[in-house]
Amino acid sequence: MVSLMITNTSAHKACHPDDVKGLIDFKAGIHSDTSGRLSKWIGQDCCNWPGISCNSTIGRVVEINLPGYYVSGDDESPTFVSSTMSGTISPSISLLTSLKVLHLNKLVGLTGQIPQSIGVLKNLKQLILSTNQISGAIPECIFTNLTSLRILKLENNHLTGEIPESIGNLQALEKLSLSNNSLTGKIPLSITKLKSISSILLDQNQLVGEIQLPLNPGQWPSIQHLSLANNRLTGVIPTSIGYLTTLSTFSVSYNQLTGPIPSSLGNIKQLQILKVDNNNLSVELSSCICGLTKLSVLHISHNKIQGPLPSCVSSFKYLLEKEVDVSFKRTAILPTGHHQL
């Protein structure tokens, strides 16, 4: 989580009128809240409302933290609560101009579109609206205006449209998750400009075209997770995959990729999960895999890849037999039990 100087002040002090107005309008847009948190949004002292945090220096709301799954109670006797909210996000959210975190994850019942007015929240660092029923296109103003964003998580919704080229503006972005929506079009080339990115999850959409990877080493110096599975991607796995030496997860299963698994993959010594199954990849499995000694998952079945599995994998101490999915006869002997990492 982003470090913020925030407080839930105990003194009875009225909040900034714009913050109160924005929050009251947000509450009005929600017609069902099983947690009862919004029912306690009473009066003008919004910094003491459940889910709201303020910056004590400027006296403005900086966090709306209302996830569907949260911890209630004190440290000695915490209670894990699962709740839902139904309704829409009010355009008046734009009145909270100091907002840094908007966390409405797993509320399940949020519908409608992401309001265009969200583009004025230029201090926003975390936008988390995952696991709801939000529909429509992602407002382009998110990519053009919210250049302080570090976390953008919109997975498990009903979003449509394309990912715009303007995503390259988000130079501070560390985590991008748009999985399990209905996004179409190509992966924008500008995504390779995200120099702070550590996680890109675009799986389970309807994306087409080629995989976009940096053409030069060092462009994604912190990348750890890249998941593009369950789309309609074509072309080859670029040889520049070998530049992503910090990668631990690479998943492109269930696409229409062709060509070989590039030998440069062997440069990714930190790789733990490799999933390229259910494509049209061909030729022999390269011995480059022998350098991937940290592999714990290897899925390469339902391709045109010829065996055998290199004998070197027998020495991979984290790779269990049940996590190896190949279409040819295995000659390497793999462990069947559990290992502790």
UniProtKB/TrEMBL annotation:
Q: Where is the Leucine-rich repeat-containing N-terminal plant-type domain?
A: 16-55
GO terms of biological process kind: defense response to fungus
What start and end residues bound the annotated signal peptide?
A: none
Q: Among the entry's GO cellular component annotations, what is one?
A: membrane
The subcellular location is: Membrane
UniProt keyword terms in alphabetical order? Glycoprotein, Leucine-rich repeat, Membrane, Repeat, Signal, Transmembrane, Transmembrane helix
Mainly localized where?
membrane
**Statement: the UniProt record of this protein carries the keyword Transmembrane:** yes
The organism's place on the tree of life at top rank:
Eukaryota
The protein here is known as Leucine-rich repeat-containing N-terminal plant-type domain-containing protein
Q: Which organism is the protein's source?
A: Anisodus tanguticus
